[in-house]
Design a protein that fits this description.
Layout: E1 8-11, H1 17-26, H2 28-31, H3 36-49, E2 50-57, E3 60-69, E4 81-89, H4 98-112, E5 117-123, H5 127-134, E6 138-144, E7 150-157, H6 158-171
Parallel strand pairs: 4-5
Antiparallel strand pairs: 1-2, 2-3, 3-4, 5-7, 6-7
Helix pairs in contact: 1-3, 4-6
Length: 191
């Protein structure tokens, strides 16, 4: 079994809070913060206004897509939008199918909740992430994140993103993995 075949994705539960904080803190250099309190604040905001898709390996978080339902700049009123605020993959799983599997799971989950659009938030200085996001969506605007760092906001319809993902999968060579797709969870309570 390869490392690629063991990342399984699901929506978060309240029990995941500490694990998500620990995961974000473990990749803090890439997210440009140094204090654990920043990870705690991010997770508090995610759990208040959205949630997280977690990718696990043997019960440990190895990937994360933290989202809001609605955009912060619209005070979360536009609930048809899934806003990916923070995302990351542990180093051993980068360059594997973990991103594709997790991103597809996130898009499918948003669609199952009746959302219509996705927003992807990337730090302006993160060239790799901006390149990746621009392959799925168009830049909408430049803005600052909650810590005052310059970011680029990308957006597209979920339908268009699924089309892009499907077309890429058709062209892709066979991999030595079988992505694990768990049933999509219900929409978070109160949203």
């Amino acid at each position: 079994m390869t490392r690629q075949s063991v990342v399984e994705f699901r929506t978060h539960t309240e029990d995941d809070r500490e694990g998500i904080i620990n995961f974000l803190f473990s990749i803090r250099d890439e997210l440009y913060f140094s204090e654990r309190s920043v990870a705690e604040h991010i997770v508090s905001q995610l759990f208040t206004h959205g949630g997280a898709i977690v990718g696990e390996v043997n019960g440990e978080i190895a990937a994360l897509s933290g989202y809001f339902l609605g955009e912060p700049s619209h005070h979360f009123a536009n609930k048809e939008v899934g806003f990916v605020y923070v995302a990351g993959i542990a180093r051993p799983y980068r360059g594997t199918a973990a991103f594709r599997t997790g991103f597809r799971f996130t898009v499918e989950t948003f669609q199952s909740w009746g959302l219509r659009e996705i927003r992807l938030h990337a730090l302006a200085q993160d060239i790799r992430l901006n390149s990746l996001y621009s392959s799925f969506a168009q830049p909408i605007r430049k803005e600052e994140n909650g810590r005052g760092l310059p970011c680029v906001l990308y957006g597209n319809t979920l339908e268009a993103v699924m089309h892009i993902l499907t077309e890429r999968e058709k062209r892709r060579h066979a991999y030595n993995i079988t992505p694990v797709h768990r049933p999509v969870a219900s929409r978070p309570h109160g949203v």
